[in-house]
Automatic annotation (TrEMBL):
Molecular function via GO: glutamine-fructose-6-phosphate transaminase (isomerizing) activity
Subunit structure: Homodimer.
Domain of life: Bacteria
Listed name of the protein: Glutamine--fructose-6-phosphate aminotransferase [isomerizing]
Keyword vocabulary terms for this entry: Aminotransferase, Cytoplasm, Glutamine amidotransferase, Repeat, Transferase
Residues of the full protein shown: 241 to 609 of 609
Catalytic activity: D-fructose 6-phosphate + L-glutamine = D-glucosamine 6-phosphate + L-glutamate
EC numbers, comma separated: 2.6.1.16
Enzyme class: transferase
Subcellular location: Cytoplasm
Role summary: Catalyzes the first step in hexosamine metabolism, converting fructose-6P into glucosamine-6P using glutamine as a nitrogen source.
Length: 369
């Protein structure tokens, strides 16, 4: 055990630091500077994907959050409608399936009972086909899917998923680019997105260098009971994932909101006892997010902002802590911003002395309903 963890205190920490490698492995021989290779979904993949008119993504937990990010990407770049649903909901309702819809299951283990049952149920519902995004080649989900795109995270031991998530995002980014190209995304835009994705391992590597600052930041959370995570656009799911990590391993109650919803409820909770963690990448929604942060500040809330280096949010103005993250581009930013949130959850949990790799009441893979 100690040998496998090497220099790291927990598997989770090791797995967080394995992300540049895991993401690079997942992209390896699937994308180069000119684009995504056409055959990455297997022999029938290209033809089947060319017929797709919409996608239904189904997953649980962290894998569900990856699906939510993919919705923003696929709708933005490929202009295809995407719905994302947790498997335990999807399997027990009569979802409407428009013609030529692709069913996509995302699962690290490929054995999650609800996801597997949802996929089996989808067979009855008249989809064009099924695609599995999964980390375990011999798993049930992979065996039963028409198309598969494997993540290459390697074994993930920590119950709280980290490298599985960023490799799922990498695989979903490949899917989004493939669909976008087939549907005529402008060449220059396509090439820029490919270049960003190729930079992702390095951008994650840079984000990992924030660890010493995050260790210091974690001290502020040790005695907290609640935390609120905010993000907008594709960073709303990143906020969800950050809050899930914190609650899973530190047992601090955390919630995530799309920042624009703050005024419709959660603002009532904001006072000096409620730290607010915001993800602020550079992009068209930055000014909107800044005004959301202003609303928090005006109520005495303590702010922690993970801000893009280009975002011009300074510490004084934030009256809190600002940590700079170099996102490396708007497309890959959700994967990059996830990393400091994983580190924050990890170091808060370490300080609180919880069982980081085996949090109470949780299982790595939920194979019964
Ligand atoms: C459990 C794990 C989570 C995981 C979820 C879905 O709840 O603790 O980390 O995200 O199952 O698992 P899957 O293997 O389907 O991705």
């Amino acid at each position: 055990d100690a040998v496998e963890r090497g220099e790291y205190r927990h598997y989770m920490q090791k797995e967080i630091f394995e992300q540049p490698r895991a993401v690079a492995d997942t992209l390896e021989a699937r994308i180069h500077a000119h684009g995504v290779l056409p055959n990455i979904f297997g022999v029938d993949g290209e033809e089947l994907l060319a017929k797709v008119k919409g996608l239904h993504i189904v997953a649980c937990g962290t894998s569900y959050h990856a699906g939510l990010v993919a919705k923003y990407w696929i709708e933005d770049y490929a202009r295809l409608p995407v719905s994302v649903e947790v498997a335990s909901e999807y399997r027990y309702r009569e979802a409407v399936v428009p013609a030529d819809t692709l069913f996509v299951a995302i699962s690290q283990s490929g054995e999650t009972a609800d996801t597997l049952a949802a996929m089996r149920e989808s067979r009855r519902r008249g989809y064009l086909g099924t695609l599995a995004i999964c980390n375990v080649p011999e798993s049930s989900v992979v065996r039963e899917a028409d198309l598969k795109l494997m993540t290459r995270a390697g074994p993930e031991i920590g119950v709280a998923s980290t490298k599985a998530f960023t490799t799922q995002l990498s695989a979903l980014a490949l899917l989004a680019l493939h669909l976008a190209r087939q549907r005529g995304l402008e060449q220059a835009r396509y090439q820029d997105l490919c270049a960003q994705l190729l930079r992702l391992p390095r951008a994650i590597d840079e984000a990992l260098k924030l660890e010493p600052q995050i260790v210091a930041l974690a001290e502020r959370f040790v005695h907290r009971h609640h935390a609120l995570f905010l993000g907008r656009g594709a960073h709303y799911p990143v906020a969800l994932e950050g809050s899930l990590k914190l609650k899973e391993i530190s047992y601090i109650h955390a919630e995530a909101y799309p920042a624009g919803e703050l005024k419709h409820g959660p603002l009532a909770l904001v006072d000096e006892d409620m730290p607010v963690i915001a993800v602020a990448p550079n992009g068209p929604l930055l000014d909107k997010l800044k005004s959301n942060l202003q609303e928090v500040r005006a109520r005495g809330g303590e702010l922690v902002v993970f801000a893009d280096s280009a975002a011009h949010i300074d510490g004084n103005a934030a009256r809190g802590v600002v940590l700079r993250v170099d996102a490396g581009g708007e497309f890959i930013a959700p994967a990059v911003f996830t990393v400091p949130l994983q580190l924050l959850a990890y170091h808060v949990a370490v300080l609180r002395g919880t069982d980081v790799d085996q949090p109470r009441n949780l299982a790595k893979s939920v194979t019964v309903e």
